[in-house]
Amino acid sequence: MMQRILLEEGKFIWRKTLCRKSVFHSSLNKPFPPNVLQSSVFATSCIICAKARSLRKNREYSEKKLTRYFVDYRQISFIGGRGGKGACSFHSEPRKEFGGPDGGNGGDGGSIIIKVDQQVKSLSLVASRYRGVDGEPGGSKNCTGRNGKTTYIRVPMGTVVKENGTQVSDLSRNGQEYVAAFGGLGGKGNRFFLSNETRAPLTATSGEPGQERILQLELRILAHAGMVGFPNAGKSSLLRAISEAKPAVAAYPFTTLNPHVGVVQYRDHEQVAVADIPGIIRGAHENRGLGLSFLRHIERCRFLLFVIDLSVENPFAQLEDLKFELEQYEKGLSNRPHAIVGNKIDLPNAPANLEVLRQNVSHRVIPVSALTGQNVEELMLHLRELYDGYIQMEDMAGRQTDRW
Ligand SMILES: Nc1nc2c(ncn2[C@@H]2O[C@H](COP(=O)(O)OP(=O)(O)OP(=O)(O)O)[C@@H](O)[C@H]2O)c(=O)[nH]1
Ligand SMILES: [Mg+2]
């Protein structure tokens, strides 16, 4: 290893290792004699040649790319594995003329199970067709065929399974399973049909086909709070301000096309998950803008944050429209515990609009600026109050709470 060496007061004081090029006596700038090098130089890391390594950052996907990765609906056809055929055979051995039937049963077909995995975040890797593994046929010498292996399909937490539009399962806990299709039973070998009346049965049955089903999987993300607002109200900016999430922010409407979840961290290690969903406009229930289908992602939210843009005239109308659209999607959705957040308070006409809003609503309005960070702490504290209220309610009802 090559070193750069300093000669000071007759001692060799050496610095951190340098590159492999050559060894220099620093004062003379000449290569250092190899014997001296061997006796006095220790190995350390090279500060100059060491690559500047920064911490690995999570890759940020554009909204367009995210749409490819974030899939929240799938229709899937499931066919369970077919049972194996039963065997028809007779025992054959020297000096044993009537060995009797020894055809084994076929193995059962493999089932298909939908299983929740906390690591999976979208349905993008779920295929549109699944076929279970067939059972193996039975053999002679009473050998039973091997059962088909169970096929597991990993889905995210919060997946709802529907059949013909009717909900059949709600998979909201990690590790929860739902049998999408049972495998068929294996056939019986001729040994099974041995009886006092029939000493040499020739009957063996074939395996049953697996269950066939068409199911719809719908993902409803699990978050404690859901942010609802008009496009450009600053929902994504607010999520960036209160959490580590990095949804795209831009000055044009409908920047956010997919829901984003950010986790707000508190000092006592309590975590509140907040979901940012695409903007809603007046008439969204008639499929205007991006429609209302993404509202299923806030169906499970325990409380809502109405984000109102204070820079526009009459912010109360925004709130009314948002509540109206939520009611069109699901009755009573707008009555959930909620907070009203007035964003863009840093803009000149915002304080006047805030007063107008306050006069029209009985609920507390929290003015914030996601851009400058003004009053964001108050919002976080209020969020925590809502969260604590939810935890208290669930504890009183004896239900398990969703914790992140
Ligand atoms: N002055 C000011 N501008 C803000 C504030 N918050 C957001 N903005 C700006 O408003 C624009 C829209 O912000 P976004 O966070 O993308 O709004 P959004 O509600 O997520 O919009 P969509 O995703 O389209 O629904 C951006 O240009 C932001 O810089 C704020 O507090 N003050
Ligand atoms: Mg957005």
TrEMBL record:
Q: Tell me which residues make up the Obg domain.
A: 68-222
Arranged from A to Z, the UniProt key words for this protein are: GTP-binding, Membrane, Mitochondrion, Mitochondrion inner membrane, Nucleotide-binding, Ribosome biogenesis
Its subcellular locations are:
Mitochondrion inner membrane
According to its record, how does it sit in the membrane? Peripheral membrane protein
The OBG-type G domain covers 223-388
- UniProt subunit comment: Associates with the mitochondrial ribosome large subunit; the association occurs in a GTP-dependent manner.
HAMAP family xref list? GTPase_Obg (MF_01454)
Give the family, as the similarity comment puts it: Belongs to the TRAFAC class OBG-HflX-like GTPase superfamily. OBG GTPase family.
Name of the protein: Mitochondrial ribosome-associated GTPase 2
Q: Which organism is it from?
A: Erpetoichthys calabaricus (Rope fish)
The opening ranks of the lineage are: Eukaryota, Metazoa, Chordata, Craniata, Vertebrata
